[in-house]
Amino acid sequence: MAARTSGQGVDLHRTPDPVPHPSTLPWLSSWLSRACRPLLVAGCFGSILVMSAPGHGAEGVLYKLETQCSQRGAAAVNCMVEAVNEGASTRYRHHIGKVIETVRIIDDPLTMSIWRPEAKQWQSLRNASGRFSTNTVCFNDQELCVINPNYLNSVRQDNPTRLAGRDLVKVHFGADGRIDASCYDAGCQLVKP
Asked: Fewest CB atoms less than 10 Å from the CB: which of 8, 12, 134, 156?
């Protein structure tokens, strides 16, 4: 099953290209700053993500999407994603059965974190990735993956030149929670987790 808004059947674990292994996923740094300055590649790439956040700055629900999610590499199941602007952050709540997985993105400086209900605190992500051909976004390798064409389509539309011909993009976050490396497509095979 695919996201209802995608108009196409997409399987998170399709063969021969299943939800990619961490070493082959490049990603979605498009949550960075508002303007891509000629700084570091990671900085420019991150800018792509923030500029693409729909309705950035407005408080409240941005959209709800019935789609498919997968946790810890398991088979994809139906889920609902709710994107909400809250102050300086955008939160993506993934309703998977009775579980809610929430990813928070703060754009200045760009950081991404996941809510840990057992500890009642946010934990910085290690990495994030996006594959445009399947509209799949993954966090912390395959800890949480979701088909989200709303997000990835806006990323590509906001960055047509930078992302032309790209399929996979991945970012790695340092100990301070900020992006310290990014890669595209086959270049991600050179970056070891």
From this structure: 8
